[in-house]
Amino acid sequence: MSSHQHSQRRGSGAMEQYFSATQKMEQEVMFPSLLRGVFPQQEGAAPAAGGHTDLYERYQLLKAIKPVVEKGLASITDQIQSDADTDTSSDDDTMDAQVEERLSHHLSGLQQVLTHLTRDTNALTRRYSQILEQVSPSEGQPSW
Fold it and tell me: How far is the CA of 119 from the CAs of 2, 7, 89, in angstroms?
């Protein structure tokens, strides 16, 4: 397996995890306004003093990024399909090592970005669940 194919598979896994995390966030975060004024913090760490973006703004950003990623993925897939349809498969048409290396580098970078976005999305969803637990009545008491 070439490094390009390996990077492509890793990127595909990162993409699937990202889309799964954003779908879960969209399903669970029913009242995004509960995230206003809540700032992200690292597990077991004090809130960052320099962090000015609350979780509501981060939620809006993560939702805005998803269609951009989907559109970009669709255009890449269309381009690959178009290239495959017009490929005349000869030895001269194979990707040279320098181009393959650059592509692998960019796919690796994409994987890192998607992994970071997935981590942020999962953290936001967990924090939202914690907020809901604090504001909703306890499970043992009837709400009527």
Answer: 28, 20, 40
Q: pTM above 0.70?
A: no
Largest CA distance in the chain: 75
Q: Say how far apart CA 62 and CA 39 lie, in whole Å.
A: 15
The full length of the chain comes to 144
User: How many other CB atoms sit within 10 Å of the CB of residue 103?
Assistant: 15
Measured distance CA(22)–CA(55) in Å, rounded: 14
The string of pLDDT tens digits covering residues 72-104 is: 776 666 666 666 566 555 554 555 677 778 788
Contact assessment for residue 23 and residue 121, using Cβ atoms and an 8 Å cutoff? no
